[in-house]
UniProtKB/TrEMBL annotation:
Cofactor: Zn(2+); Mg(2+)
UniProt keyword annotation of Nucleus present: no
Domain HRDC: from-to ranges: 536-611
EC assignment: 5.6.2.4
Organism: Bosea caraganae
Domain Helicase ATP-binding residue range list: 30-198
Rhodanese domain location: 219-278
Name of the molecule in the record: DNA helicase RecQ
A single GO BP: SOS response
């Protein structure tokens, strides 16, 4: 039996936001909220989580208090809602005096439907009491994983939100996150709710994302090759160090990309300016540390690159989730190397945490390493980590095959070669790196080989049937598999682990993925096809024409381009070519307020386009 408010919710969804139907999982959360229940939703980025608290606020009236971790995200959401005709405001440290005064006037008059605040602001004196006197109908907690010490973005201030709820009179809570494994979900529920909430865990699959990994081999060249098929698209390149973001942004700028760096060590004005350019304009590449991203609400990010391996699958999933939020095709590439793995393991070992926490962090890191070195479908391996079973993407619902399903990677018995390499490690003293080990195995006479007399080892030259690169790759794989460990945090190099000794002495076999050699031309063609999204030349031309119009309006109004209309909406306009306001109203993403504001100017642009 349909919910009593469903017809009203659907009417509001169409008139305000321009959508004909809910996305998968949304109605279950919205229905629970409309019933006044506590609800905890774990839904992937791009699934429309914000609609799960925005729509109930409009249907039921009254004030919904939204806790959001970032000022940029608050500003962005308030801007989008205001242009859709929704009474929304935020209270944050970046407010001008007039903005704060206006927000309070609208609060006192009962006009506001959504008020966005940071958890830090709620912990201050007086605000919660003042809001209680005004009356709050619901508390919405975005990025709820920040409450959990098991989450990857832990914010201590989120721990105060259970008390905030009580101080507001025990109002119902909607908590939302995109990334939480079972342990993190249990912790979030325990921290935020006095009794178990209505739990909605939607599929973690993002079928519009292409997943690809590659061992590092001249990373700057690999990234440049990847970006060639993404000119004109917006994207993020994540780096593990501040200096690397700046060097990479500089190198991409020299190649003609509109590229900027972003990291926590930058002067704040410059950092904010770079973020604003990325958010507001098209075709911008941001080279960033993980300081950039949480709450970034740009729907038309067409690619995410990891220049270095992420520290966990949760981080990886959260970061690639910033691509393709509009549901259109998006591309991802993750580069990884033995140095990344060693660095991440070292970081965990050096943390001031208890043994149980260290064990869990190592387990999470090993899951990330396994994903890099897997011979199985990336998509099904990723989803299995979150407890979701799905067929390989060559057989499933994904729009694009992952790199392994496209290249048919297989596991092969690597025991013999592994024993050769492990023997070289042991015989050379368990302190040398991958390049030196490759020289030993291929019989290459280097200065270090001569100085160490390693040309006299029994293993010198036993692997001259393979190139050095193959032995270096095997070193990485054995390190990933736990057969090798760092010999020294100061000097690097490798030593055998207990597992490595078992393999070397014949007590244990090992199978490893055979590295595929992808056809770069085929990959480039596939990416180009993914980017074009099947648009014919005329439609693509009109889409670009409308993007330029959108950009000029956005600059004039001082807002992000996608706040005017998303790429998805512009593509629908380019395909449908509406002739009047009634036809324009049927385009997804065109609500009544936007139809009034922008309908005529976009209709004129479509009518006069000469393509």
């Amino acid at each position: 039996m349909p919910h009593a408010s469903e017809s009203q919710a659907r009417a509001t969804l169409k008139s305000v936001f321009g959508y004909d139907d809910f996305r998968p999982g949304q109605w279950e959360v919205i229905e629970a909220a409309l019933d006044g229940r506590d609800v905890f939703a774990v839904m992937p980025t791009g699934s429309g989580k914000s609609m799960c608290y925005q729509l109930p606020a409009l249907v039921t009236g009254g004030l919904t208090l939204v806790v959001s971790p970032l000022i940029a995200l608050m500003r962005d959401q308030v801007g989008q809602l205001t242009r859709a005709g929704v009474a929304a405001a935020s209270l944050n440290s970046m407010n001008t005096e007039s903005e704060a005064t206006e927000a309070w006037e609208r609060l006192n008059s009962g006009e506001l439907r959504l008020l966005f605040v940071s958890p830090e602001r709620l912990s201050g004196e007086g605000l919660v009491g003042r809001l209680r006197r005004l009356g709050v109908n619901r508390l919405a907690i975005d990025e709820a994983h920040c409450v959990s010490q098991w989450g990857h973005d832990f914010r201590p201030e989120y721990r105060l939100l259970a008390k905030v709820r009580e101080a507001l009179g025990g109002v119902p809570v909607t908590a939302l996150t995109a990334t939480a494994d079972r342990q993190t979900r249990e912790d979030i529920a325990q921290q935020l709710f006095p009794k178990p909430p209505h739990l909605v865990v939607h599929s973690f699959d993002r079928p519009n994302l292409k997943l690809a990994f590659a061992p590092k081999d001249q990373p700057r060249r690999q990234i440049a090759d990847f970006l060639k098929s993404h000119r004109g698209g917006s994207g993020i390149v994540y780096c593990s160090s501040r200096g690397r973001t700046e060097r990479l942004a500089e190198g991409l700028s020299e190649k003609g990309y509109k590229a900027f760096a972003y990291h926590a060590g930058m002067e704040q004005t410059q950092r904010n300016r770079n973020q604003d350019v990325f958010l507001q304009e098209d075709g911008v590449v941001i080279c960033a540390t993980i300081a950039f991203g949480m709450g970034i609400n740009k729907p038309d990010v067409r690619f995410v690159v990891h220049a270095d391996m992420p520290g966990s699958i949760e981080s990886y999933y959260q970061e690639i989730g910033r691509a393709g939020r509009d549901g259109l095709p998006a591309d991802t590439l993750t580069l990884y190397g033995v140095e990344d793995m060693a660095l991440r393991r070292r970081q965990i070992d050096e943390k001031a945490i208890d043994d149980e926490r260290r064990r869990i962090e190592h387990k999470r890191l090993n899951a990330m390493i396994d994903l890099c070195e897997s011979a199985l479908c990336r998509r099904s391996s990723l989803l299995a980590y979150f407890g979701e079973q799905t067929p390989p993407c060559r057989h499933g619902q994904a729009q694009f095959r992952c790199d392994l399903c496209g290249g048919e990677a297989t596991l092969t018995d690597a025991t013999l070669d592994a024993r050769k390499l492990l023997s070289a490690v042991m015989r050379s003293g368990q302190r040398f790196g991958a390049a030196h080990l490759a020289d030993i195995l291929t019989g290459t006479m280097s200065e270090t080989i001569r100085r160490q007399n390693h040309d006299g080892l029994k293993t010198f030259g036993v692997g001259n049937d393979k190139p050095k690169a193959a032995w270096q790759a095997l070193t990485r794989k054995l390190f990933a598999a736990g057969a090798l460990a760092e010999a020294s945090t100061e000097h690097g190099g490798f030593r055998l682990t207990e597992k490595g000794e078992d393999i070397l002495f014949g007590r244990e076999p090992i199978s490893l993925r055979a590295d595929a050699l992808p056809d770069r031309r085929a990959r480039a063609s596939e990416r180009a096809a993914a980017r074009a999204d099947g648009l014919d030349e005329g439609t693509a031309g009109l889409f670009e024409h409308l993007r330029q119009l959108r950009l000029s309006i956005a600059r004039e109004e001082g807002v992000a381009a996608y706040i005017i209309f998303t790429d998805r909406t512009l593509i629908a306009m380019a395909r449908e070519r509406p002739l009047g306001l009634d036809q324009m109203r049927r385009i997804e993403g065109v609500g009544e307020r936007k139809l009034t504001q922008y309908g005529e100017v976009f209709l004129d642009a479509i009518a006069t386009f000469a393509g």
